[in-house]
Amino acid sequence: MRGWNGNAKLLHWREEWARLQNQKLLISGHDIQVDHRSFADRGIELIPEIHLGFSMKFLPSDYLPLKAQELDRLREYLSIRRQNGRAWSLRTRTGP
Fold first, then answer.
1. Cβ neighbours of residue 67 closer than 8 Å, sequence gap 6 or more
2. Model confidence at 92, in pLDDT bands (50, 70, 90)?
3. pLDDT mean over 15-35
4. At CB < 8 A and 24+ separation, what contacts does 41-50 make?
5. What are phi and psi of 75, to 5 degrees?
6. pLDDT for 58-78, tens place per residue?
7. Which region, left, alpha or beta, applies to residue 59 given φ > 0 means left and ψ of -120 to 50 means alpha?
8. Among 2, 3, 11, 70, which is 20 to 30 Å from 96 by CA?
9. What is the pLDDT of residue 49?
10. What is the rounded distance in angstroms from the CA atom of residue 86 to the CA atom of residue 30?
11. How far apart, in Å, are the Cα atoms of 79 and each of 14, 50, 90?
12. What is the 3-state secondary structure (H, E, C) of the chain?
């Protein structure tokens, strides 16, 4: 059973999922492509974002019932977004 959860299997699934997405995007007339590789593997110097649930991204800023752990995760997410925004802005001004 170990092979089921191995990194090689995960990478294979990600690659196949990207291939299927790209096929459907092309059929639908979209001029975009999905790349399954990590930022590092593509030579992109950005910090990978952490995953937040869909609703967490759209909470009002004064939403109080958040637990401390959720608030820390949201702060970390926003910090990474700011850092990546600065890096991207600098990159677009100076070139790749």
1. none
2. confident
3. 97
4. 45/87, 45/91, 46/84, 46/87, 46/88, 47/80, 47/83, 47/84, 48/80, 49/77, 49/80, 49/81, 49/84, 50/76, 50/77, 50/80
5. -60, -40
6. 666 666 566 666 778 888 888
7. beta
8. 11
9. 85
10. 29
11. 27, 11, 17
12. CHHHHCHHHHHHHHHHHHHHHHHHHHHCCCCCCCCCCCHHHHCCCCCCCCCCCHHHHHCCCCCCCCCHHHHHHHHHHHHHHHHHHHHHHHHHHHCC
| Integer Rg of the chain from CA | 18
- How far apart CA 37 and CA 93 sit, in angstroms, is 25
- The amino acid present at 75, given as its one-letter code, is R
Rounded-to-integer distance, Cα 29 and Cα 27, Å: 5
CB 35 within 8 A of CB 42: yes
State both tokens at 79: 């910090």
Contact between 76 and 49 under an 8 Å Cβ cutoff? The reply is no
Q: In the numeric block, which tokens belong to residue 7? A: 């990194």
